[in-house]
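Deliverable D5.2: sample structural annotation.
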Amino acid sequence: MHEIVVNLHMHTRYSDGTGTHKDIAEAAIRSGLDAVIVTDHNVLVQGVEGYYRVGRNPNSPLRLSRVLVLVGQEVHDQDRDPQKNHLLVFNANRDLSHLADDPQALINGVNDAGGLSFIAHPKDPEAPAFKETDISWESWEVRNYTGIELWNGLSELKTVVPTKLHGAFYAFFPQFIGRQPIPEVLQRWDELLEEGRRVVAIGGSDAHALKMHMGPIHRTIFPYDFHFRTVNTHIFIPEPLTGDVPTDKKMIYEALGAGRCFVGYDLPASTRGFVFKARGLERSVIMGDEIPSKGGVTLQAHLPRPAEIRLIKDGKILNIWKNSYACAYSVTEPGVYRVEAWKNYLGLKRGWIFSNPVYVR
């Protein structure tokens, strides 16, 4: 398996962002990403997918640095007030915004088109100081979606800005914002997994590169470059990217749909190199896969740097390793097992890695 780093859920001038696809590609290359997935609101932008090559990177084995830009949508009912129930749509290759008023019909339409669907910012609270309304997901009765956006960088901002003064502080010092996925979202994900559903967790930046004006203060809130160095989705594909767009697009979306990925908060330290796998009597699997419990299963996690490792079974902490590079734990009981890693950064213990589960059946 080959690990790539993908930033997903972002916006351009085609909806409510301020940059172009080329701007995003340049920022992604500067940040060392392998791919980005752009998701403008209720519009599927045509003709911009592909590899972008911008400048030279002395750390890259390639002659020219490159990034793969893929395009999806963030679909929601624009007539709804407030505009809740946002859905990220990947790889449907058709505009599905006409289904926005019925979340289940939209999810069904995505599945019929062979795409993937992820509930966007499941908990997105209001921020009264900035006249931002709550746009959380409400229609939890829906079925057959691919997964949820476990950590949304922009939603988290709304949880730490009770006043405009707080907003001004974080505008200049955004590195203090990221702490962890919103706890209600983590709890909801564990509940869905306990129900026996396969729900893939991803991390999204929700990058807009918004322009802020407060009196004499003019600033871009979270430039694309900053977002691309924070919450990313690390995906395991069967072989390195080839440079052929259809081939690489297929590999990325197949791995994403299978849950062979983890959410990494790359600002405190790069999470590239993390692995969570399980070994049984007959085979070894990685996150997103199933393995039989017969004969026992050994769960193993390896981190690129030492951190606090938490092994979680069915939503409850099973064991904790302090300041460790790796851990191993043998289990015989069926369950949904996942790993979290927590790291101290800027005076706080912050979520660093959130794996997708290994399903022991």
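Annotation notes: Residues 153 and 284 are 33 Å apart (CA to CA). Residues 245-258 form the longest helix (14 residues).
The annotation will be released with the project's public dataset once the embargo ends.
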